[in-house]
Design goal:
alpha/beta; eight-stranded mixed β-sheet; two-stranded antiparallel ribbon; 12 strands; about 35% helix; about 25% strand
Length: about 210
């Protein structure tokens, strides 16, 4: 069975309440296998203000976040392997585009949760890759896996109403883009599921989600 592909965007990586709820949901999933992918956050901007170059700040922020997330998940009883895309030749950028070593990834996915940063390798250098690019790469590699995104509308976390909505990328309203869809994933144009950190505990039988095709 293919693992889910959950993406933590910049907005949510700065939200402690969201991250705690997300960690608790992972704990409730038990041994269900998942791949969680994250980038940097607004922490990058704070590092730049200290005098760091943007490229260096993005790398530093992603590395720090990976370590902090592994610790947060562990505090909630979730065993997680944290790794960066550039390690073990996992994600490389070539003149033909991004490449994912699926065999290598599967060999290190021995625990239920695998946490991967958006740092890839290009000509022996570490680079930062945007999340939608990685989402398309992983989705193409794991064809049966669902790409999971999380609503940035905080009201979705507290509303008790449930339901499943189906919508296409062409049908998404400007209001939905502005208030609900993670900013990085506007115009993503790949199949995805949008849900909340709390409801993610019910995966794969989500009670509140929007399926975007």
């Amino acid at each position: 069975m293919s693992p889910y592909l959950a993406f933590l965007d910049r907005h949510h990586l700065e939200n402690t309440i969201f991250l705690t709820a997300f960690a608790k949901s992972l704990a409730k999933q038990g041994n269900r296998r998942g791949i969680i992918i994250h980038g940097d956050s607004e922490y990058t901007e704070r590092l730049i203000q200290t005098g760091m170059m943007r490229e260096d700040a993005q790398i530093r922020a992603a590395k720090d976040l990976n370590r902090r997330l592994v610790g947060l998940f562990a505090d909630n009883g979730v065993s997680t392997i944290g790794i960066h895309g550039f390690q073990k030749g996992l994600v490389t950028k070539t003149e033909n585009g991004l490449l994912l070593n699926k065999k290598k990834l599967q060999s290190i996915h021995s625990t239920p949760c695998l946490l991967i940063s958006n740092l890839a390798e290009e000509k022996e250098e570490t680079i930062s890759v945007n999340l939608p690019e990685l989402a398309r790469l992983f989705s193409d590699t794991f064809e049966d896996a669902e790409v999971v995104l999380f609503s940035k509308n905080e009201r979705d976390e507290i509303l008790t109403s449930s339901g499943v909505k189906d919508v296409s990328w062409e049908e998404i309203s400007s209001d939905f883009e502005k208030n609900t869809l993670p900013e990085e994933f506007i115009n993503f144009n790949y199949p995805a599921v949008l849900t909340t950190a709390t409801d993610f505990a019910n995966w794969p039988n989500l009670k509140k989600m929007t399926k975007i095709s």
